[in-house]
Design goal:
Layout (H helix, E strand, L loop, with lengths): L11 H4 L4 E4 L3 E8 L13 E7 L1 H11 L4 E4 L3 E2 L2 H12 L3 E2 L3 E2 L6 E7 L4 E6 L3 H6 L11 E4 L9
Parallel strand pairs: 1-4, 1-10, 2-8, 4-6, 5-7
Antiparallel strand pairs: 2-3, 8-9
């Protein structure tokens, strides 16, 4: 009887057949740090603001690209504004291939993620036109993907 063969699924060679395709909404993320969440109708001092990107798809693509995996991000379009330029530069610096368009007629979506020292976290999303933009995304690259990652946030489930 022959010895069992080694499973090679998930090895680096399987990634060479196509990119990991991440399907997600794309937005500027503002990360706010507060000492403690306030009660309703009260406030809190914001002690830090950092910019990043959202949602999980762009971050997943960036993490995989940093490991040398070919990636492709299928997402909504963004604006050709300060926020859109930050998002585009963030993805370029991390070698993430993307299919979105950036134009002056588009408002770059934004999300504010607020967190405090007690690990309480919440978010507020401003996603104008995102669902409509996602509905127009060309999904043909999925046919050559080695793996597919899809964000499933309730805010975009209609797309």
């Amino acid at each position: 009887m022959a010895p069992p063969s080694r499973c090679t699924a998930g090895s680096a060679t399987s990634l060479q057949s196509g990119p990991v395709v991440c399907v997600s909404y794309l937005a500027l993320a503002e990360l706010w740090t507060v000492p403690q969440f306030p009660l309703a109708n009260h406030g809190a001092e914001v002690r830090g603001i950092e910019w990043s990107v959202a949602a999980d798809g762009p971050m997943t693509a960036a993490a995989l690209a940093s490991l040398g995996a070919p990636t492709l991000l299928l997402s909504n379009d963004i604006g050709d504004d300060e926020h859109g330029r930050f998002v585009r530069t963030w993805l370029e610096q991390r070698h993430v291939d993307c299919t979105f368009a950036a134009g002056p007629e588009v408002v770059t979506p934004r999300i504010v993620v607020a967190a405090d020292c007690y690990v309480t976290r919440t978010w507020f999303a401003y996603l104008p036109g995102v669902v409509e933009s996602l509905e127009r995304v060309d999904l043909s690259p999925l046919a050559r993907a080695s793996f597919i990652y899809v964000d499933g946030y309730q805010l975009i489930e209609a797309a």
